[in-house]
């Protein structure tokens, strides 16, 4: 898909590899990325999360998103199975836009001590002040 076109939902095949006593490995052959999970549900959630952040990264970097291989073209071994994983991108994009970032702030020692003494939440106060300043 062309980099300037953003879809709402993507579907990609993933290969789940199960070996006794090990986590379930998950590979997206079209995207060359992998993750794992301790059980079926964890592996599925990890796969969906990985698919979302991988697609988001490609979008942000302006790279083409490959077309997914048809399920019928994916070959597996005896301990592997293929599943079609989907991701809803609007929620991924919004989560990335609203993610928190760490910023280092320098304060006079007396102000830091006074704020700590009063149990003031530094992050909350800074966010409120910045929102007021930028009229958000």
What does this structure look like?
With 136 residues, the protein is an alpha+beta fold. The chain is built from 4 helices and 4 strands, in the order βββαβααα. Helices cover 38% and strands 21% of the residues. Strand 2 and strand 3 (33-37) form a beta hairpin. The chain is elongated, with a radius of gyration of 22 Å.
Brief write-up:
It contains four helices and four strands; from the N terminus they run βββαβααα. The protein has helices spanning 40-60, 89-97, 109-117, 122-134; strands at 9-17, 24-28, 33-37, 80-88. It has a four-stranded antiparallel β-sheet with strand order 3-2-1-4.
Structural class: alpha+beta
**Alpha-carbon Rg, integer:** 22 Å
Q: Strands of the largest sheet, in order across it?
A: 3-2-1-4
Give the amount of beta strand, in percent: 15-25%
In the predicted model, the low-confidence regions spanning at least 5 consecutive residues are none
Mean pLDDT value:
90
